[in-house]
Every structure is written in C-alpha cells, then in structure tokens.
Design brief:
Elements: H1 2-19, H2 23-27, E1 30-39, E2 59-63, H3 65-76, E3 88-100, E4 125-137, E5 141-156, E6 159-169
Parallel strand pairs: 1-6
Antiparallel strand pairs: 1-2, 3-4, 4-5, 5-6
Length: 183
C-alpha cells in the first residue's frame, strides 16, 4: 500500500506540474534514457493479427529525452503562437496499478507487453494508469483526450523517475486542432 501511495502521489504531482505549466520541473521527472511513445491507433478487425497498434506505423510522439527537451523549449519560447494565449489544462490520472518487477524471485508483470515494449528491468516498476486531459483555449476551443498509459518507473537517488512511457489514445482519429500537450 505504501508503494501504491508513493507512485500515486508521483503521478498526481506530475499532472499538477503540467497543469501549472512547470515544464522544466516536469521534464526533471524523466530519466535521461527515457522513451516516450504515443502510437497512432488504427481501426482494425479483432481477427487482424497485426492489431490496432504496431511499432511500424505512425506515432504522434516517439520521443527521447532530447525530443522532450525540445518540445518543452518550444512551449516556453515567445514565438510559440499556438500557446499565446495559453491553453488551460486539467490532467486527471486514475486507475493506477503498480507492479514491482524483480522484487521477489519469479515476480513480474501480468503477461507479455501488448505493444512490444521492452519489459521492466529488475527493481523497476510497471505502472498502468488512465489519463483524461481536458484542454480549453480562447473562448470556445475545448478538447478532451483520453488515454491508457503504461509507465516504467525507476527509483533513482532523486526519487522516482519515468524511464519509459507508452500512451495509447482512446481516439483513432484525433479531432483536436493540435496535440500541443503532454500526456
């Protein structure tokens, strides 16, 4: 229970940092070797062996730490006209599940990764959650994005850090005018 509480607080803090546009503090929550992947979701028949998500198809984001740093810098630049006036964000994180991998012999995540992600290393944590991101801009621009996230958290000298994140959007067609957000 203590581990679940610690991880939940970490994810809630991350959501608050994004809502408050504290992007440098948010970026500090990631490891330098992070992989942040938001694949496109394809509408496929259940019997299609390829599935709705594959590494060989389009991704909204397929980022390293350097890519995330560039996106943060762009958000903070005075020339980021798409964010002036600023978008108001509300990130809601729920359905948090924590699996500590390698803490005991034979311990591991529930089954194979459905999207071909690398399994967590011993001592890392597999964390699943659901995210709803509400965005409002100007007077009438409003978006709601929903997603399922799978994170691998690593304990460092500075506390928990996100080593990998996979975000599977609930939408197969993005109806938003842009995706100027972090999920």
């Amino acid at each position: 229970m203590a581990l679940h509480f610690e991880v939940s607080r970490f994810l809630y803090r991350e959501a608050r940092l994004l809502d408050e546009e504290r992007y440098d503090d948010w970026l500090a929550l990631f490891t330098s070797d992070v992989h942040y992947w938001v694949p496109g979701v394809e509408n496929r028949m259940r019997r299609d062996p390829l599935g709705s998500i594959t590494r060989s198809h389009m991704a909204f984001f397929d980022d390293t730490f350097m890519d995330l740093s560039r996106r943060v810098a762009r958000f903070q630049a005075p020339t980021a006209w798409a964010e002036d006036p600023a978008t108001r964000h509300v990130h809601v994180v729920t359905n948090i599940e924590v699996e500590q991998v390698g803490a005991e012999p034979g311990s591991g995540p529930d089954g194979p990764s459905p999207h071909g992600e690398e399994p967590p290393a011993p001592g890392e944590m597999l964390v699943r959650s659901v995210l709803v991101s509400y965005r409002n801009r100007n007077h009438d621009e409003e978006d709601v994005l929903s997603a399922r996230r799978t994170d691998v958290l690593r304990r460092t000298d500075d506390g928990l850090r996100i080593a990998r994140r996979t975000v599977v959007m609930g939408q197969s067609v993005l109806l938003s005018q842009n995706i100027n957000t972090f999920l």
